[in-house]
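Recall the central idea of this unit: under ordinary conditions, the amino acid sequence of a chain determines the structure it adopts. In this exercise we apply that idea directly, starting from the sequence alone.
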Amino acid sequence: MKQDNKNQNKQGKKTKHKLFKPRKKRSAEEDAAIQYLQSQYEQINPDEVKTFKDFPLSQKTLKALKENNYVTPTEIQRQAIGYALQGKDILGAAKTGSGKTLAFLIPILENLFCKKWTRLDGVGALVISPTRELAYQIYETLRKVGHLHDFSAGLIIGGQNLKFERKRMDQINILICTPGRLLQHMDENPLFSCDQLQILVLDEADRCLDMGFEATMNAIVANLPPERQTLLFSATQTKSVKDLARLSLSFPTYVAPHEQAETVTPESLQQSYIVCEIDEKIGILWSFIRNHLKQKVLVFMATCKQVKYTYDLFCKLRPGISLLALYGTLHQEKREKIYNEFCRKSNVVLFATDLASRGLDFPRVNWVIQYDCPENVDTYIHRAGRTARGVLGKGEGLLMLLPHEEKIVEDLTKARIPINKISVDPSKVMAPQRKIESLLSDNTDLKQTAQRAFVNYLKSVYLMKNKEIFNVQLLDTDAYARSLGLIVPPRIKFLHKYNKTIPNKNKEGENENVLDKLKSNTDDCDGSDQSESEAEEAVQCIKKDKVTKIKKDITKFNFHNDDDDSDEGDFLQVKKKNVNIDAAPIEELPTSKKKAKPLTKAAVAKKILKKKIKVNTTVKFTEDGEAVEDEKKDVKSELAKQFMNENVGGIDIEKAKEVLQEEDKYDKVRFREKVKAKHKEQKRKLKNKRKDEEGEKDDFGSQSESDGPDLSWLPDPDKLYGTKDDNGEVSDDNDDSELRLRDQSVSEDSDEDQKYHRPSKRKLLESKGIPQESITPRKIKKIEDVSASLSVQEAEALAMQLLQKK
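Accordingly, the structure predicted from this sequence is:
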């Protein structure tokens, strides 16, 4: 029974987990809430909306908005959200920092919530941004506002792991992306499909639809379903019918709450500009940063190379404030890190290109400096809008212009942008010119970066469309190069070609002006024959110059000229006949020489090879001034000698390999000889060292060389040969010790035997009177063994017997 109760309890517990009654209740509640919300959409009145609660929004969205302190909607949010909830296409234009991101994120969440969108339904909303940083910012805002919903969201931008994205593309409901990466997935990823797309959003729509993204956007729109809701938002909205037709927009609602405002830019933004020379700009920027060390500054430049060089240079100069640089060629992870760091810090300077000018919400930016003139008014608006964001945001903007770029101020005033001219106090400008030049002389990498920055800036000016403001010919390139620290300005190929084409046009215009002046002079002068003839001669000379040019340029002529034609056709008719050639000396006409082409580095190198001049050769000399031959050039093999004697331009690699293989054999022999010589020299040094150690010694126990060789190593002769009696006979004592000493002396090194003469065993035994045959080494050993075992008395008895036998 107990077991049955346990099983029942277990089954009861399991059945509780399997029940789906609460979910059914929730779904029923959600259905009722969705029906109520959809019924309220048509009754939305933007003028009556004061808080987000006044909109018919889901509880999840309202709660997330409250958590992030979004209470009161802005003007663009108040007007755009209502129309978006009603399913209308929208063209939204509002000032920078007015909250356009929430104006399209809230309708996306509500639309998918009302349609009960799940992961199995695929992509329901698509948000396209022109830059990665803006896409990242939109994604972070979506995470804050939509974290209570059950939708999946994905950030698809360049620089990330493509394989990781491919596997998850079919599970994403809200896709935030850049155009290039989106098109790549459309082309390559079979899992990706936009057939169920409900909403398409273009943030910074005018930038997404311009010439840079035209082909990409056309391909993306072709893959999207035509029945969808489309929202376009930007501070400078496009109204081009062509752009709207590309997106299949039909009767869109134009929402522009600030269109009738006095200014296009925020009212709390104080804007001013200065006029300076091109070589003064870097000094003014350095002085500005040094005087604003406790503020957050954003500096916009024209090119990536300028940003990189200015950042590297100022880091080495150390202004006393944190420096950051954001430009397109950086790796994506580094770009995100720099973006987050600039948002977090309060005292920092960020050098950036127009990459950071659109849509990015940098908090608490005090100054926006436009170091280079913006391309147009729209670019200025987006750059300046990085400060003074929000309702209470304040900021200042400074525009640095060259004298010929001051014409853009007229365009700004026409576009309702209030801007004032200010002047710089010369006493506060500290240009670190000497420091910059010294840094570039020490650091070759920094010098190359400066050269690239110089060339890329001139290219950017050259490629600008508005030639009234941007004119390369008016730039003082030498002064600009010196301000960057370059003593010699780099050569610019495209500028040289551009300069060559202009003078020809100017010369033709000058000739025409001269003709007009001469004709006017002839009309104004007196009626004397002399003045008229001089004028006519001058006109004829100029006409002849023009005719010679025409002859060179035109290959076909019209020879059918009537006599009544104008004077310009008279040069083809015969003026004089029967001219006496001998009478007048013929002057040689100056031959036109072709202009010498500028010598390039490649041309100089070719000339050197043709002349067979050996470059990069070094010759060593002795103290007497004689040249030392290089051992490497001393070849031994016949093949190498033949190869050296051949005077052929260039290098035959195959033949050179064969020569090296032949020479390698001789090099090995040389190497062995060198090693032997080295060892021989080491032995000689050791020998000399030993001699020095065995040299003269003083009276304190050392020997001199005159005393003869050192014989201390020899054994005592008395012990070996025995002591002599008074009669001169050798005693027979210590026979055993003598034999042992002889054995020890025999066992010494053979080298010492060769150096010194020693008596052999045979002579030693014969000197003792012992014949060699009677006693052998084995017998001696046996005797030693017997004598060792006997006592003293037995040994004496044995010795007496042996003596008696003798």
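Residues 1-43 form one domain.
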